[in-house]
Design brief:
Elements: E1 2-6, H1 10-21, E2 25-29, H2 33-40, H3 51-60, E3 64-67, H4 70-76, E4 79-82, H5 97-109, E5 114-118, H6 126-137, E6 145-149, H7 159-164, E7 168-173, H8 176-190, E8 210-214, H9 216-247, H10 251-259, H11 280-293, H12 299-309, H13 311-323, E9 330-334, H14 349-359, E10 363-367, H15 372-378, E11 383-384, H16 388-392, E12 397-400, H17 405-408, H18 412-418, E13 423-426, H19 433-438, E14 442-444
Helix pairs in contact: 1-3, 4-5, 5-6, 9-11, 9-12, 11-12, 13-14
The structure holds uridine-5'-diphosphate-glucuronic acid (UGA).
């Protein structure tokens, strides 16, 4: 099938490249001509593992093209996937202006009838509004548009793998023809007839994905319900971690036992400095707004959001306790991205951490394997280091804000020697506390019994 992708953010790019991998002819476009120029040069505007490889292969095979001419791209596809951003407005609602713009462009530029698929994360009933907008804007064109919702469940850092090996594919439709078209689009995944290009025969062992056909409203709600539930799970485990710290239990022991209960499951039980990224924080906010409009009591999610916002205050208090004051202290930070294997810093906890430390006049030296360029634009005056070792040198504390696996295998003996005070504040429980203490570090993880005289309740209202 010929498919158009509107929006070359990470969802659009992964969706476009993977749909081409399924054998479809895909053309992608974006309002940002510079992005298209980068893509046509064979580079990528974002870092996402395996994406470069499948973009290159499918471009070479002639199945994947990029154009800055939005009209051409709209006319290209029998189906158009809208993958535009839906950032938060000041009041937490999703900003749907890019969706509205997409509807106008599709209506104005189409010369034939099309299936329009909502891939962007949107509040419930957006599909209905999209359909109405398309009808109004295209009323004189003779073109007819059907609308479907096909939420994505891709995680940054593993998005290509998630696309090719999904747990489920959710398709919200209002008519039979849309269902037929979407079944055709995802046929190779459902029938498992594609040769996975990234795992070389070593794919994650998984049953065939379930295809769920729902109403458009339900599909939209599924996405918000899933992301909000994941956020709840993380805030819940962070709350457990705080109790562990203050009352002397080990959160790893607790979550291991919790995760072995098949009703709870082991994933998203990692405590830390909070959830970030461009999805969970904004989707929780948008879902709270939606729930309030539906007269539902959203206090559960509001509390989850509140717990998340306070993670950084609590982490800073943990630094203040041994260091007394952060003013003029040289502090190293390892990890800037909101999670490993991405260069995305949007709503990353590390950004809040930097803001807090700057406010207290700490001297920062930071390192991240992928996210330094993007962070420089936000904080031009802190010191960016070429290596993790340089970020630790002469520091009075080293904070781990993102659990990049490579940090685990650093030469920690060397780091111990180079630090002014060998204090590690591990915001992601990346390192083994016992090993670090055996090397002579003062080590503080998350949800571990607090050592010595560090009392977070003294002097800091958390
Ligand atoms: C999230 C969802 O997990 C995806 O299913 C969804 O498709 C995506 O949003 C989206 O809406 O597009 P993503 O934002 O890539 O994916 O990242 P997650 O893996 O969910 O992590 C989000 C944040 O939670 C990160 O800051 C991570 O460090 C934190 N986290 C995650 C924890 O603190 N603890 C955990 O146990 C898991």
């Amino acid at each position: 099938m010929r498919i158009s992708i509107l929006g070359c953010g990470y969802v659009g790019l992964v969706t476009g490249a993977c749909l081409a991998e399924l054998g479809h002819e895909v053309q992608c476009t974006d309002n940002d001509a510079e992005k298209i120029e980068i893509l046509n040069r064979g580079a990528l505007p974002i870092y996402e593992p395996s994406l470069e490889q499948i973009v290159a292969a499918n471009r070479q095979a002639g199945r994947l093209t990029f154009t800055a001419k939005v009209g051409d791209a709209v006319r290209f596809g029998d189906a158009i996937f809208i993958c535009v951003g839906t950032p938060p407005l000041k009041d937490g609602d999703a900003d749907l202006s890019s969706m509205d713009n997409a509807a106008r462009v599709i209506a104005a530029e189409s010369r034939s009838s099309k299936l329009v698929v909502e891939k962007s994360t949107v509040p419930m009933q957006t599909g209905q509004k999209l359909k109405r907008a398309l009808q109004i804007y295209a009323r004189n064109s003779g073109c007819r548009f059907s609308v479907a919702s096909n939420p994505e469940f891709l995680c940054e850092g593993t998005a290509v793998s998630d696309f090719l090996h999904p747990d489920r594919i959710v398709v919200g439709v209002g008519d039979e023809q849309s269902e037929i078209q979407l079944r055709e689009i995802y046929g190779p995944l459902i029938d498992q007839t594609i040769a996975c290009p990234i795992h070389h025969g070593d794919c994650p062992p998984k049953p065939s994905p379930k295809l769920l056909i729902t109403s458009i409203n339900s599909a939209e709600l599924i996405k918000h319900a899933c992301n909000s539930f994941l956020a709840l799970k993380i805030s819940y485990v962070n709350l457990i971690a705080d109790i562990c710290e203050n009352m002397g239990a080990d959160v790893d022991e607790v979550t291991q036992a919790m995760g072995l209960d098949s009703r709870i499951g082991p994933q998203f039980l990692r405590p830390g400095i909070g959830f970030g990224g461009f999805c969970l924080p904004k989707d929780v906010q948008a879902f709270i707004r939606l729930g309030e409009k539906a007269s539902a009591d959203m206090s559960l999610l509001k509390d989850a959001e509140c717990i998340n916002k306070r993670r950084i205050d609590r982490f800073l208090a943990k630094a203040r306790a041994p260091l007394w004051t952060l003013k003029d202290k040289r502090i190293g930070i390892l990890g800037l991205a909101f999670k490993p294997e991405t260069d995305d810093i949007r709503f990353a906890p590390a950004m809040e951490l930097i803001r807090g430390l700057i406010q207290e006049s700490a001297q920062l030296q930071v390192y991240d394997p992928q996210a330094m360029e993007k962070t420089k634009a936000l904080f031009p005056s802190i010191r960016y280091c070429d290596t993790a070792y340089a970020a630790a040198e002469n520091a009075e504390a080293l904070m781990i804000a993102t659990e990049w696996p490579l940090f685990r295998s650093l030469d920690w003996k060397l780091i111990h020697q180079s630090m002014s005070r060998p204090l590690i504040l591990d915001g992601r429980n990346l390192l083994d506390g016992q090993e670090m203490r055996a090397l002579g570090f003062e080590y503080q993880g998350i949800g571990k019994p607090i050592e010595e005289a560090v009392d977070l309740k003294v002097g800091h209202a958390l």
